[in-house]
Amino acid sequence: MARAAMLHKPDALHLWAIMSEAALRILVGGRVVMRDQLAHLLEMAELPSVTMQIVPFGRGAHPAIGFAFSVMRFPDGGNDVVYLEELTLASYLDRADDPQREAYVTVWESTVKAALDAKESVRLVDSVRREL
């Protein structure tokens, strides 16, 4: 809750999330819970510190299908840091010369292009919410 509250601050860091349409459609906790979760996503997407993009099923396979990762970018223009979280461990890829880090950054950038833009993503989330 404390981390989520940080998104409402005037000096909030920017959160840019990309997810598959599957994340919107797999029922977790039942219809009411999912409807509430999707409504929450829509509220968060209105914040100036949040960008939400969805890769719809119709776009087919995308570069990040099957795995999750985070890319952290810093205002000073330093190297991106890739964060990988698995069941029992986590890794940070932060060396500028690390080809694995660069591969994740390339996949991120390709996935941004494969996803709907922010406005289209909001419309899709709202459509799925209304279906429930």
- In what order do the strands lie side by side in the largest sheet? 3-4-5
Order of helices and strands: HEHHEEEEHH
Tally of separate helices: 5
> What radius of gyration results from the CA coordinates?
16 Å
Overall mean pLDDT score?
94
Percent range for β-strand residues: 15-25%
Shape: globular
Structural class determined from secondary elements: alpha+beta
Q: Please give the share of residues in helix.
A: 40-55%
Low-pLDDT segments: none
The major β-sheet equals: 3 strands, antiparallel
Number of strands: 5
Task: List the domain count as a whole number.
Answer: 2
Descriptive key words:
alpha+beta; two-stranded parallel ribbon; 5 helices; globular
